[in-house]
Amino acid sequence: MRSLAGQVFVLQAVLVLLLVVTAVAALLVQAGSSAEEEARRRSVAVAEAFANSPGLPEALRSENPTESLQPLAERARERSGVDFVVVMDTDGTRHTHPRPDRIGERFVGTVGPALEGETVTEEIVGTIGPLVQAVVPVFGPDGSVVGLVSAGITVDKVSSGVQDQVPLLLGASAAALLLSVTGTAVIGRRLLRQTRGLGPAEMTRMYEHHDAVLHAVREGVLIVGADGRLVLANDEARRLLDLPPDAEGRSVTDLGLPPRTGRLLSSGRAAVDEVHQVGDRMLAVNHEPTDRFGGPPGSVATFRDSTELRVLSESAEEARRRLKLLYDAGTGIGTTLDMVRTAEELAEAVVPRFADFVTVDLADAVLRGEEPAGGTVTMRRVAAHGIREIPSFYPTGKLIAFLPSTPQGQGYRAGQAVLEADLATAPGWQEQDPERARRIVEEGVHSLITVPLRARGIALGVVNFWRTREHGAFDDDDLSLAEELVARAGAAVDNARRYTREHTMAAALQRSLLPRALPGQEALEVAHRYLPAQSGVGGDWFDVIPLSGARVALVVGDVVGHGLHAAATMGRLRTAVHNFSALDLPPDEIIGHLDELVDRSDRDGDGDGTPDGTSGMMGATCLYAIYDPASRSCVVARAGHPPPALVHPDGTVEFPDIPVGAPLGLGGPPYETAEIDLPEGSRLVLYTDGLIEDRGRDIDVGLALLGEALARAGDSPEETCDEVTGALLAERPRDDVALLVARTRALGPDRIAVWDVPSDPAAVSAVRGGVTRRLADWGLDELVFTTELILSELVTNAIRHATGPVRVRLLRLERSLICEVSDTSSTSPHLRRAATTDEGGRGLFLVAQLSERWGTRYTGNGKVIWVEQPLPRD
Known about the structure:
Layout: H1 2-51, H2 56-61, H3 65-80, E1 84-88, H4 112-115, E2 120-126, E3 129-139, E4 145-154, H5 155-164, H6 166-195, H7 200-216, E5 220-225, E6 230-233, H8 235-241, H9 259-267, E7 271-278, E8 281-289, E9 298-305, H10 307-332, H11 339-350, E10 357-363, H12 364-367, E11 378-386, E12 399-401, H13 407-414, E13 418-420, H14 427-431, H15 434-442, E14 445-455, E15 458-468, H16 476-513, E16 524-531, E17 541-546, E18 552-559, H17 564-582, H18 587-605, E19 620-628, E20 633-639, E21 645-647, E22 653-654, E23 660-661, E24 674-677, E25 683-687, H19 699-712, H20 717-728, E26 737-744, E27 752-757, H21 764-777, H22 784-801, E28 806-812, E29 816-823, H23 843-850, E30 853-859, E31 862-870
Parallel strand pairs: 20-23
Antiparallel strand pairs: 1-4, 2-3, 3-4, 5-6, 5-9, 7-8, 8-9, 10-11, 10-15, 11-12, 13-14, 14-15, 16-26, 17-18, 18-19, 19-20, 20-24, 21-22, 21-25, 25-26, 27-28, 28-29, 29-31, 30-31
Helix pairs in contact: 1-5, 1-6, 10-11, 10-16, 11-16, 16-17, 17-18, 19-20, 21-22, 22-23
Domain PAS: 208-273
Domain PPM-type phosphatase: 521-744
Membrane topology: Multi-pass membrane protein
């Protein structure tokens, strides 16, 4: 052993000397070839590692591979130090690239051998200089090539490190020579000391020990010679690859290995953690040539069983997909308060990710907003969605009475999900409609999960998940996922059901509070429109109220908010307006009384003043106008409401300047009025803010559009309503809209008679005579007697009890005759029961008996007592 150590010392000294002398020259010569080889190795390693990434085949089959692969490829490029990592399909079309503008273009390079399952390396000159690129295949679960991965790196990037070391190597060569000779001597002495003078026998035993370790490791090892024959296989390799006993010495292509594995072992190319399927195992293969660092020709391969890791990865991926489905369903179901749309969203969320077809059936009472009666299994199909048409399914809208033996009947009654893994052998399901069930099975549907749609412990309907031959049957894991999906949809459907119930109640309340028909009057030709908001019933309202003296009040109001409370507030305000109008008050006083009413209601409603916790009447706006056909004037007051529009007989449009007060309930200065002259045939347009305001436009734009629509509209109020709503409103407006269009009529001088009466009882007879002649001219001789009695009583009382001038006015309308007596007194007569001994007090009683209606209204100068008599029928 000492002689051997001396020989080793001499040999090592000579070798070190030669290496030191030739190091610089060899480094420069080998720099180029080493750089190319290193570039080849690194590009192949990066491409192989990315191609065998878990989930890559699934990503290539997705609808948008670039979205998921581009960030992964860029991260791999940055961490590995290569210049590019490109993922492409089998046609060579890029899905990833460092320059996104080149994604979708064809790959420049050789891809043919890679499509056959081989790895291709080539040297090219690209836009970034000479480079080495590798193209490796991506294999699917069945071993077929489903895509390609290419990685490349420039030679300069690899060789730059070696070239940078040349100056340092030149400076250290002399010192390295001395150290090497000294080190060789030290190593020789240490070798003698460490081997302790062992001879050939001892070295043999050491080799046997190393061989035993090789065969005992839990990783398969194969050594292949330069001729492609198996040199050595340890026990783990024999087990994993199921090698025959006489495998050693045979060609690796004759060992019964999968073709892809055999090609790798005989090719001599390097591979790092390349996944191969051998039998029912997934093996991670590492393959390296043995002569790369001066060893004998051939290669060594290691095999590691990754089947369990693959199964765990697939299980984790399946769990991720299910969680993603639940998340998407949670965010995509219940976006509206519409039960049918919610059912459709559930069906769209799970097809085809979980089921091939989904049908949703709800109890009829649920669709009306009610809770279903216990025990009923009659439901209406509201949604059906699938990967294709299945004609034999019940159509949407069909009312279905499920038998108790069906999965739907069982699940609905018991409140539990039912799984039918094989519909062809499910007798309960087939009993519902045997012929239809046979056709459904023939069309490929083979598995069903029925889950009751429940909320707050109440069954609202059932959801049916169906699978066809394209996918496997449902199992217990699918059952729990289906229950979770339906549970999330159940809350959304119940919210929509309760909204439907509240909306129905509010709509019924609103219909009962809005005027069903406009009252008869002769001063205006009126048309109206009411359009509820998309979000539900609101508080917009309108009214037409006949007043004394042939006058008519037009009212439009808007209550803030939607729902029952807004509708109830609207009803209270409308009732209050009717009551105040009965007092014949001017518009500003009526608006003032409404303001006090809302303010008082708000104060009374603070805290717990209202059962639902709301606060009073809520905010509101109102516009009140009184039109007098005798004077053709209109007096208007408004509280926070948009101004009216006026269309003149010649078609010109204007928005009169009406003083605006604060909305109702806010208080502030007294409300003001404005008087507008309306020629006969003018159109007065009242509306709520929902007509002109929108999120996408300013109020000034809305007013301009309204003016343009009114200028185009026809003369009749109905045509005006149609033109305005068609031009300004969407199919389902965001806010309530009330529109009132009134075309004015006028009482001509031939239908009005006026007398000024002196304060002398003797003048009454002259008035009676004038009235008699005028009634005769109007052809109302039948009313002469009653009219003389009424005027005699009213004029006599005015002369006797009032002060100042007295005026009598007759108005002949189409259906009535109005007699008015005005004076300057603010004292109003009142009807009373006269005692038998009283000499007076029966005049107003006679007036009330002889007329259809009578009353008193106050003016700025006094009062007017009016009496209305119906005209005799022809």
